Amino acid sequence: MPEVKGQRRDYRSPVREEAARRTRRAVVAAATTLFTERGYTGASLRDVAELAGVARPTAAAVFGSKPALLRQVLDEALAGDDEPVPVARRPWFAPVWEAAHPVDVLRAYSEVCLVIARRAGRLFEVTRRAADESAEIGQLWVTLVQNRRAGAEMVVRKVRETGPLRRDLDLDRAIDALWVLNDPAHYMALVVERGWSDAEFTAWLTTQMTAALLDASVP
């Protein structure tokens, strides 16, 4: 087919695409370090660019704005990488779906909470503290809170598939209870501040989740 005069071809350069990916990863890594160490307000895009080894306009252009960069940093911390795979479909979430008993579901979910808190607990705190700075960051915090509750709902429904909830709980109250317990702030307080081991934390969390959702008669 002859080329139409003036028609632009869509050229794709693997080399250019890989360079763009490396730049994105460098900017996200630098922002993660600086947001964690200095907080959101203490880390400028200029600082991020300098640590990433790119020009400031490049760092700004990659994600468009500092709030958008924080959102990307959080997304990758929660998921573990930049692949477009939902958290609930990650391999480390699979034991929750594979469990056949309510206590096993909650035990597996406590391990999920540990994985997420280790990677994103400090960033959750950074976002919470910066939520009053702008409407965009405030909305980002609201989204994080809502997503935690959505995650709690998925797990409660899985628990209910494998056995009964506590007789005095309706679905909403059960979701609320698990939503409170899946907060990374618990990890930050007990492990980071108080020096608990990861094993101690997950054992405690499993106990709390089990007591909150299941009757004492459940083995």
TrEMBL record:
Residue span, HTH tetR-type domain: 21-81
Record InterPro entries: Homeodomain-like_sf, HTH-type_TetR-like_transc_reg, HTH_TetR, Tet_transcr_reg_TetR-rel_C_sf
PROSITE patterns in the record: HTH_TETR_2
Pfam families registered for this protein in UniProt: TetR_N (PF00440)
Lineage: Bacteria, Bacillati, Actinomycetota, Actinomycetes, Pseudonocardiales
Residue ranges the UniProt entry marks as DNA-binding: 44-63
Entry keywords, A to Z: DNA-binding, Transcription, Transcription regulation
DNA-binding found in the keyword field: yes
TM ranges: none
SUPFAM superfamilies: Homeodomain-like, Tetracyclin repressor-like, C-terminal domain
Annotated protein name in UniProt: TetR/AcrR family transcriptional regulator
Highest taxon in the source lineage: Bacteria
Species of provenance: Pseudonocardia benzenivorans
